Amino acid sequence: MKATIERATLLKSLGHVQSVVERRNTIPILSNVLIEASEDGGIRLMATDLDLQINETVEANVTQAGATTVSAHTLFDIARKLPEGSQVELNAAEGKMQVNAGRARFNLATLPRDDFPVIAEGDLPTRFELPAATLRQIIDKTRFAISTEETRYYLNGIFLHVSDESQPVLKAAATDGHRLARVTVPRPDGAAGMPDVIIPRKCVAELRKLLEELDGTVQLSLSETKIRFGLGAAILTSKLIDGTFPDYSRVIPTANDKLLRIDPRSLEEGVDRVATIASEKTRAVKMALDRDKVTLSVTSPENGTAAEEVPGDYGSEGFEIGFNARYLLDILGQMEGDLIEVHLADAAAPTLLRENDKAPALYVLMPMRV
Predict the structure, then answer these.
(1) Fewest beta carbons less than 10 Å away: which of 21, 129, 158, 209?
(2) Which residues form the DNA polymerase III beta sliding clamp central domain (predicted)?
(3) Which strand ranges, in their side-by-side order, compose the sheet holding 313-314?
(4) CA-based Rg of the chain, rounded to a whole angstrom?
C-alpha cells in the first residue's frame, strides 16, 4: 500500500478513531488502527474495542491500493508532531509501514489486516434521521446523569425509546439513582416501533466528539443489540447494553405543589460559592425557602459555615431541603433562560426542575438529609 495524505486531514481523522482504542490492551491488534487505501483515492481508517467501532473515509492520493494495521496512538502522536501543512507519505510492505513527511522518517511495526476484528452489524431494521443539533442537545442534557456504577450496568448509558402521548415522541433518559435527566423530542419518521435501547457511556462520549464538527443530519440504524450512526464521512457502530432500564416515569413527581421560580444563573453561582467549604464526602447544601428568597447554606465541621441569599419567586409555606451541590450544579448548568421552575413537595420527596412546561428537558433530583 502506498498513499500520500495531508497532515491536517490525517490528524483530524486519527483524532476521531484513536480515542476508541483503549490505552491498555491484552489483544495487540486492538491497539491498532486499520488503514485501507483504495484505488478510487480514499483512505479508510478504522478502530475498535470489540464493543464500539468507528470508521472514517478521507481523501488521499493513492498510488498503490492495500491495507495494513499500525499502532493507533503512535501514528496519532507522530501526525500531531509533524510540521503543519506537510504531506504525509504512508508506505506499507512486508510487516512494516514507513511514514515520511518532510525530513522526518518513521518505520513502524504492523500487524496483518486479516487479523483485525470487525463488529458484525447484522440486520438493523429501524432507520431514521435526526438533526445533529437535536442529537447534541439530547446528549448534553442527559449524559451527566449516566451512572458510573458497574454493578448497575443497565444504568451505564442513555435510554432511548419512543412513546405515544398526545403526539408521538422520542425520549432519552439517564439516571444514577440520585438524579434523572429526560429529553423529549418529536418522533422522527421511521422511528415508530423501534426497540427500547440503552446506548453505552463510551459510545455517547465518542458520538458527542464527532457531532462537534457536524451540521446537517445523522442517520441512525438500530436493532435490539446494535446501533449505527452515519455522521458524514464517519460511521460509528456500537453494541447496546443488554439489560432492562427501570421504569423511570414512576420517579417523576406529578403532585409537587410548591413552586419556586428563580434565575438559574443566580442560583448556580450561589450554590457554587457556598459549596466551596462543603466537605468532599457529603457536598451537601441546604436550601431554606422563604417568601421571595432562598437562603443557601453549608455547614462543615472542618471548614466552618457559609450562607447566601438568592432572590426567587416563592409563595408557599417555608421549609428547608438539602441537595448534593455537585448534582444540583450539573442540572443548573444545562438550564437556559432567565427563569426556571423548581417543583417541591417536602424535604424527603424528589424535586422536579425544568425551564417551563414546554421545555424538552426535565430533571428530577433526590434530596439529602442535612
Answers:
(1) 209
(2) 130-247
(3) 197-200, 157-164, 168-175, 179-186, 361-365, 351-354, 340-344, 258-262, 313-314
(4) 25
